[in-house]
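Lab notes, practical 5.
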Amino acid sequence: MDLHFEEQDNQSLKRFEKMLRTDAIYFFDSTEFERIIKHYIDSGKINLANKAITLGLQQHPATSGLRLLKAEMLIIEEKYSEALRLLNEVEALEPTNEEVYIQKALLLSKKEKHEEAIQLLKKALDISEEDNLDVLSLIGMEYLFLEDFERALLYFKNCLEIDINDFTNLYNIVYCFDMLDQGEQAVTYLNKYIDNEPFSEVAWHQLGRQYALLEKFNDSLHAFDYALLIDEKFIGAYLEKAQVLEEVGRYREAIENYLITTELDDPSAFAYLRIGKNFEKLKNSSAASEYYLKSNEQDPFLDKPLIALANLYFEKEDYKKTLFYLNMLIEIDDENPEYWRLYALSNLKISFFEEAAKSFQKCIDLGSNALDIYMELVDTYYYIGDFKEAIRVLLEAEIYYHNHADIEYRLSGLYFLIKSTTLGEQYLLKALRLDTRKYTLFQSIFPVLHNSRYVKAIVLKFRNSM
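Output from the prediction step:
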């Protein structure tokens, strides 16, 4: 669109909006109305678009362009029956109007009738005097909806042959290669594209991504560097280059690239999080903590920086700070068993056994039935002397973990402690039959019982019977 056309278009918009404000009646030709309507549709101003359609059809009731725009609006508003009726009327008058079939195809696509939509788009393509880039792209998208990535790929490639600088279709081509798990073919295609368009930063960036997926990290970094030579402000290339540097253990360089993205645009929680992770890998916990906090400031509802902080302070044995960040996490999501387990372990470390027991139980209630969690809960109840609760948990664990020595040895010891000698002996023999080597577990948890004559006699009798 040249400058004269833009000025003319703006004048039409101003006149139209003045007409709406003053209730005056101005005349616009049908082409002006079409431009006004398209502007409002593209701007998402649906009410104004509808007003322009109504007034346009009042002044030009037989104009197919305006009627087709009305059909488009009806499709947007999901008034499919009205839209189809209007499209059929236009088709009866203008059977060679390709836009009719495009709009019908969009309607069918909205109704998930993608095969039928493709047939109509192909009909529109036949009517076109030359290859219609928009229609070819729409057909490709319909094949994407059908997850027919091979056919979609053919159409997107055709689009790119028509307009080599249409990066939307280039992205779609790479997406199809990804879905077909054809990384090598994607690399070959992108290299051929770059032979023709060596200064395409988008192509170099996509090539870097593909090499990274193929774990050809040196080639990937080389491609990202070319993308950044062409466009030194290409944030996506810096981010993905940083991730590759991280993958190969070049953490300081990764940090440098992440930091560049925070200077080029508003800092992202993701970039700060990754900087923190890299500092943590460099054993610089204070810098890691600083950037995790910055990540949290950028997005207070993002869990990753908070769990990173909690884990960091847990490793440093600063359990109060661990609990502080876990409380923040639990406020965001109190149904995540990962948080509750770390919460329980932290309380266990500072001898808050009852709080730890509640937290382990919360993990189980939330559906996390890992054996470790059951054992940690059992051992917590054992430490606080609640043997019956410990037995209850072990019997529940037995439902999921049949004939597991860790469970049987603990049940044996606990039954002995509550004076259920018969059950204690029964479970001890069962545990010994399952794994005699794990008797050391019984010995470490129940040293007094291990040294008792009664238990020694049971163990000796079992070993003599083998």
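Observations recorded by the TA: The two ends are 93 Å apart (CA to CA). DSSP finds 28 helices and no strands in the chain.
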